[in-house]
Design goal:
This protein is mostly beta strands. The chain folds into 2 domains: about 1-85, Ribosomal Protein L25, Chain P, CATH 2.40.240; about 95-175, Ribosomal protein L25, C-terminal domain (RNA Polymerase Alpha Subunit, Chain A, domain 2). It is built from 3 helices and 13 strands; from the N terminus they run E-H-E-E-H-E-E-E-E-H-E-E-E-E-E-E. It has helices spanning about 15-20, 40-50, 105-110, and strands at about 1-5, 20-25, 30-40, 55-60, 60-75, 80-85, 95-105, 115, 120-125, 135-140, 145-150, 160-165, 170-175. The strands form 3 sheets. It has a 6-stranded mixed beta barrel with strand order 1-3-2-6-5-4. A hairpin with a 2-residue loop joins strand 4 and strand 5 (about 60-75). It starts with a strand and ends in a 37-residue tail after the last strand.
């Protein structure tokens, strides 16, 4: 997917944002280019490509293959204020997180079991053109107490990819139904007072501005 960008002068971030532009940087071991992209165009591309797909970034007419490495957000407005693009090198592997899509419904879940999903992503090292859109893991055959781990997703990856996560980490577990707790009759009526672990006042946080 393509996205247009322009080089920019350092220190103009706030002015650019007021004009609907998103300031950013394109970097790798050999370059560091301050850029700006149109906010709405970036939002459309980012929603489609995320952080694990290569974007063709056209900077002043020259194409750069990049991955979105980081997006700084305004916490109050929930909108991006700065983006870091990493330019990939042909044949060089990159580290990316790939989403795991659990498909199917275990029979145990239909019998009251609880599906406990602990991880929805696996970190891999792979050449960019082999990055999978997602990884599908069939859970329909799982029973009570069954678990699937990072190692169980290995066969779904392209052979050019290496798993960086600990392969023993649990992805999903099927928990047995909870048994109703027996109430103990003490013969006395007790007043239950809820325990307050901690309270925090609502805060209207301003997003952090990118340091340039």
């Amino acid at each position: 997917m393509k996205l247009a960008a322009n080089t920019r002068a350092a220190g103009k971030a706030n002015t650019l944002r007021h004009k609907g532009q998103l300031p950013g940087i394109v970097y790798n071991n050999e370059l560091n280019i301050p850029v700006s992209v149109e906010m709405r165009a970036f939002d459309k591309v980012f929603r489609s490509q995320g952080m694990s797909h290569v974007i063709d970034l056209d900077i002043d007419g020259k194409n750069h293959e990049v991955l979105v490495k980081q997006v700084q957000m305004n916490k109050r407005r929930r909108e991006p204020i700065h983006v870091d693009f990493y330019e990939v090198t042909a044949g060089q592997k990159v580290q990316v997180g790939v989403t795991i899509d659990f498909i199917g419904t275990p029979a145990a879940a239909k019998e009251g079991g609880q599906i406990d999903i602990q991880r929805r992503e696996v970190l891999i090292d792979v050449i960019p053109r082999f990055i999978p859109d997602k990884l599908e893991l069939d859970i329909s055959g799982m029973g009570f107490g069954d678990s699937l781990h990072v190692r169980d997703i290995a066969s779904k990856l392209p052979e050019q990819a290496d798993i960086l996560d600990d392969e023993s980490l649990t992805l999903i577990t099927i928990l047995a139904p909870r048994l109703p707790e027996e109430e103990e009759d003490t013969g006395e009526e007790e007043m239950m007072v809820p325990e307050v672990i901690g309270e925090t006042a609502d805060e209207d946080e301003e997003g952090e501005e990118a340091t340039e």
